[in-house]
Amino acid sequence: MFTGIVEEMGRINQLGYDKPGSFTMKIQAKLILEDINLGDSISVNGTCLTVDHYDKEKLEFSVGLAPETLRKTSLIELEQGSLVNLERALKPSSRMGGHFVQGHVDGMGEIVEFKPEGDSLWVKVKTVKEILRYIVPKGYIAVDGTSLTVVDVFDEEDCFNFMLVAYTQQKVVIPMKKVGQKVNLEVDILGKYVERLLSTGFVDAIKSS
């Protein structure tokens, strides 16, 4: 479980198939390595990945990516030198600064517009209807692992938007991307639970009891 509050931006040192069927990503970081252990869960651009090696002297850790992860996320678009959002898994004693983020990417969106307003930045993202159905104005969404508040939903365009304040722009990778690039999306899990309960007739059963 994560909060969507990015702890630091890491840099991709190396990525690719180190042996047939095994895609490995080596990431340079600092804060993440302070209390790292093998098997830890790290959110990399919103994707929950498992640490399989680390070197504190080189300030580097590595994670393996399954074929399904490469198919379902934007991580396949990364290159050596790319920056990524990093967050360690939530501890029971941690402050909950964002919202409940699982690191299980629901799908991808495509950035269709950046529009500055003052020192803030509007970002508009296009996605598929299957994901957009769970996105509501003033609701939560994780974009590349960043907990954000949706401002508007444009159903006719299959789009939604959000605003990044000046501070956030300096701390996450989204403003560094270009129009047309992909982002990982994770919708608020509460919306999916509510839909599931309604579809099973749970609410009707409660009313009639």
From TrEMBL:
Q: Where are the Lumazine-binding repeats?
A: 1-99, 100-198
EC id: 2.5.1.9
Q: What's a GO biological-process term for it? A: riboflavin biosynthetic process
Which residues does the UniProt record annotate as the domain Lumazine-binding? 1-99, 100-198
Please name the pathway.
Cofactor biosynthesis; riboflavin biosynthesis; riboflavin from 2-hydroxy-3-oxobutyl phosphate and 5-amino-6-(D-ribitylamino)uracil: step 2/2
Question: Its domain of life?
Answer: Eukaryota
GO MF term list: riboflavin synthase activity
Keywords, ordered alphabetically: Repeat, Riboflavin biosynthesis, Transferase
Q: Which PROSITE patterns match?
A: LUMAZINE_BIND
Q: What does this protein do?
A: Catalyzes the dismutation of two molecules of 6,7-dimethyl-8-ribityllumazine, resulting in the formation of riboflavin and 5-amino-6-(D-ribitylamino)uracil.
Name used for this protein in its record: Riboflavin synthase
